[in-house]
Amino acid sequence: MHRNLDRLNGPGRLAGVDLARGLAVLGMLAAHLLWTGEVAEWDEPSTWTAIVNGRSSILFATLAGVSIGILTGGRRPLSPERMSTAWARIAIRAGILLVIGILLIVTGVPVYVILPAYAILFVLVLPFTTMSARALLFTAAGIGILMPFLQPVLNELPFWASNLGGDVALAIGWNYPFTLWIAFVLAGLGAARADLRVKSVQIRMLVTGAVVSGAGYALAFLPAPGEGLYWDAVWTAAPHSSGLWEAVGSGGFAIAVIGACQVLCRVPAVKLITLPLRATGAMPLTAYSAQLVAWAIIAAITFGDTSDLGGFRELEPFWPFVGVTLLGATVWAVLIGRGPLEWVLDRSTRSVGGSASRR
Questions:
Q1: Which alpha helices (DSSP H) does the chain contain, by range?
Q2: What is 259-271 written as a DSSP string?
Q3: For residue 185, which of 54, 65, 190, 250 is within the disulfide window of CB 3.0 to 4.6 Å?
Q4: How confident is the model at residue 353 (pLDDT cuts 50, 70, 90)?
Q5: Model pTM?
Q6: pLDDT level of residue 358 (50, 70, 90 thresholds)
């Protein structure tokens, strides 16, 4: 038990990153299970739950970049030999994530499973892992600003309207298009290269992310340069739109949240209070997958149909799911340690690279 607690609370652990992951997991759960509405109105508290829409999954993707940054050296990229080993391990993890994602899709639960998109992004980001923090952040910004102008064209390709196209879209997680979402992963990778342990970096992330996010959402209210469906798709901050101002606003929001969590977890009392969230964030794959499997089982027993979203929401499962997730993750992390699916990922890659040092 003491060893597992030391693993969660020790100086070698980025507690704020775990906290941010825990928030992202619960945010995605809220987006799935609550009637949240489309837009959060800051002068209307009853709409604030809508903040989870889109932002939670983008935070999840940005944190994936942070994880890859840690796996590939943290502040300094690994040497070429060790980087090759890290690439192989990440590629294997991507393959396992793709399989798990497809299995979750097969359950018929009516959500867009993010894991296939994760798997593709894990592979696409590998060539960028040798870059510096500055280069990564500028590249992320460039993609985040340019791709929303191309994404509507890609989304309207005739292929997606075919039967095969629909299946492929699910299998590759096109609701989280890798063509744009690579920007969020690169931003997270850049944050890891900037060294998330340094207080000044954490504060810059919080302040810069908040300013960028506020600017993105504010600029969305300006008139678009043109009219028609194309500009409606580009000039928007709507959740899951892949619009310009969603990319800027929600991307900045993710960076601000990670910075804020790192700052907060510098305070021992905060680390103690947030242990259940951090335990959940230490096993995000297990927590995310277990929620969807439990949803499928309950819906199948109750309705005989796993695809009835409205019926399942009417059961008001959100808070029971939150309670079980936090309690289960905490007990498992304290008594056993690494989450079961995280253990599978670790074991599956342990033999790669032989005696090479592991991070």
A1: 2-9, 15-33, 55-71, 80-106, 115-124, 133-155, 163-171, 178-194, 199-219, 229-234, 244-264, 268-273, 275-282, 284-303, 309-314, 318-335, 340-349
A2: HHHHHHTTSHHHH
A3: 65
A4: low
A5: 0.94
A6: very low
